[in-house]
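Whiteboard transcription, Tuesday session. T.W. wrote the structure tokens on the left side:
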């Protein structure tokens, strides 16, 4: 279409509570299954499993014990990461948290074992709320938080000095807007109204 796009990374993800995550993963008998609504939650698990002793525990017995339980996922990207750690995803066609919650409710019984939900600090409350209303226990554990990319200001300034004011700007997340908008307004000055 004759448009030129420049991608500027806006977000970084910081992984937290990984010891606690592995502790929970070490006790599949306490849970009815797993819930993943973002690829980052699986990156957290992969970081956990990089340590030799943990990787060994996973491949020797934990993976097999978790594989008897459902691993609910919200989309294809997350599903393929679930497969990489050796589990079989379910619900990947759901596409969003609301639909995944309905899918889980159609398969889980109220008051069964908790589902373990490793998630980000900014997770939406849709899925936990729907499951709570249906009496399906969910144990959430925050395993990553979203922060501003360390080179964001630098990247924006460099773009504006080389390319000038862009015709349009596209955002992919509320955090992206939160971290960028101020810088962009400063760099555009009075021309901000000309930017789509």
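and on the right, the sequence the group agreed on:
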């Amino acid at each position: 279409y004759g448009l030129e796009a420049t991608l500027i990374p806006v977000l970084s993800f910081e992984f937290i509570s990984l010891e606690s995550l592995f502790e929970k993963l070490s006790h599949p008998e306490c849970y009815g299954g797993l819930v993943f609504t973002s690829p980052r939650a699986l990156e957290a698990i992969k970081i956990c499993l990089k340590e030799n002793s943990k990787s060994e525990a996973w491949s020797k017995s934990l993976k097999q014990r978790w594989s008897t339980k459902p691993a609910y996922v919200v989309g294809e990207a997350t599903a393929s990461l679930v497969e990489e750690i050796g589990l079989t995803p379910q619900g990947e066609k759901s596409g969003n948290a609301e639909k995944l919650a309905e899918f889980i409710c159609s398969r889980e019984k109220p008051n069964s074992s908790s589902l373990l939900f490793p998630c980000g600090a900014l997770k939406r409350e849709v899925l936990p709320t729907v499951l709570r209303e249906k009496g399906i226990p969910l144990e959430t554990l925050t395993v990553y938080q979203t922060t501003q990319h360390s080179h964001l200001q630098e990247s924006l300034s460099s773009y504006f000095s080389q390319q000038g004011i862009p015709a349009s700007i596209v955002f992919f997340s509320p955090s992206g807007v939160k971290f960028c908008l101020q810088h962009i307004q400063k760099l555009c000055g009075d021309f901000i109204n000309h930017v789509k």
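Someone added at the bottom: The chain is about 45% helix and 15% strand.
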